[in-house]
Design goal:
Helices cover about 25% and strands about 25% of the residues. The chain has about 350 residues and is of the alpha/beta class. Its cofactor is FAD.
């Protein structure tokens, strides 16, 4: 039996597996899906887990079942591309592969800031989002919460906490002169206005120097913070550093036009670990997964794969609580209820893949 191993049950890995199943697996192929959790989790909704406004079960989706698909749950310790095996902490024997998909996501980038990793919470995994949610829920009235980073994740975390806990003091630290630097100025102004109206303190041109257990020190002064959540950038999973593949200046693996590692074309990379001209997102990982599935389907059936078409993203959506939002759709900025409903619709579709 030939063996295909998919590392990571995220948006990219799931699209690959679903499409291969839809197209029909070759009879001599065994697929092993490796993930730390026994379910796919909707990472775009982790901000709501942290804020305590969404139940854990509402962001979990069961993996597909098939007689030729096996699952292995645990922490990946080594990707041995020389011997073509995967070492899992909880499994005694390494898992061999003939074809490999690497979709192990990203982790927080603390930029070498002292205390950031030790004293801040995260929304990069469902387990970390749960811990952040517990910390927020357990805060006394009038406690102080600080969110470091005013990109999409930081905006959604800050606004959701504000809506969930109006008794808390919420502070958002933004490194730039405006929030959401990747979005249209109309959206930036709308979000800034929303925060002003809802008493979220936005500090621009922030420069966090170090973090303490109950304080964040910015531009020479420290202020109290009972819970601090870090949303100030990500980097590829640390395991990518150990691989002998060529990488870009962000540490992501460089690929050929078929999403294969040029030096080992039986290895594919999807999502946050794959070098791309686009910023990382669930939408990007999903589209990459679709194209990898097309390539793999041909390769596994002994055919020459067609050149994948160019990735065309449809825009980005963000929430400001449960009834307000923003987004770039059809190359136009939208704000208010419409983009929030659109985001809810995307979530509904994701659950019914």
């Amino acid at each position: 039996m030939r063996k295909l191993v998919i590392l990571g049950g995220g948006y990219g890995g799931m699209n690959i597996l679903h499409q291969l199943l839809e197209k029909g697996l070759p009879e001599d192929l065994e697929v092993t899906l490796v993930d730390r959790n026994p379910y796919h989790s909707l990472k775009t909704e982790f901000y709501a887990i942290a804020a305590g406004t969404t139940a854990d079960k509402d962001v979990r989706i069961q993996f597909p079942t098939h007689e030729q698909v096996k699952t292995a749950y645990g922490e990946i310790q080594q990707i041995d591309v020389e011997n073509q095996t995967i070492v899992i902490r909880e499994i005694e024997e390494p898992i061999p592969y003939d074809y490999l998909v690497i979709g192990i996501g990203c982790e927080d980038n603390y930029h070498g800031i002292e205390g950031a990793q030790e004293f801040t919470h995260s929304v990069q995994t469902i387990a970390k989002a749960r811990r952040a949610g517990t910390a927020i829920s357990n805060l006394d009235a009038h406690s102080k919460v600080t969110i470091v980073g005013a990109g999409l994740s930081g905006i959604e975390v800050a606004s959701e906490i504000r809506e969930s806990r109006p008794d808390l003091t919420v502070r958002l630290l933004d490194r730039g002169a405006t929030v959401l630097k990747a979005f249209d100025s109309k959206i930036q102004d709308y979000v800034e206005d929303w925060f002003a109206k809802n008493n979220v303190d936005v500090i621009h041109n922030a420069n966090v120097e170090y973090v303490e257990e109950h304080a964040v020190c910015n531009n020479g002064s420290c202020f109290d913070s009972d819970v601090t959540i870090w949303t100030a950038g990500v980097k590829p999973n640390y395991l990518i550093e150990t691989l002998p593949f060529e990488k870009d200046d962000q540490g992501k693996v460089k690929l050929n036009d078929f999403f294969q590692v040029p030096s080992q074309t039986n290895v594919y990379v999807v999502g946050d670990c794959a070098s791309s001209v686009h910023s990382p997102s669930a939408q990007l990982a999903g589209q990459q997964g679709e194209k990898i599935a097309e390539v793999l389907n041909a390769v596994l059936k002994g055919k020459e794969p067609d050149m994948p078409k160019e990735i065309k993203l449809k825009g980005a959506l963000g929430s400001l609580g449960k009834t307000d939002g923003f987004g770039n759709m059809f190359n136009q900025p939208f704000t208010g209820l419409l983009p929030r409903l659109a985001k809810t619709g995307v979530l509904w579709l994701s659950k019914r893949h």
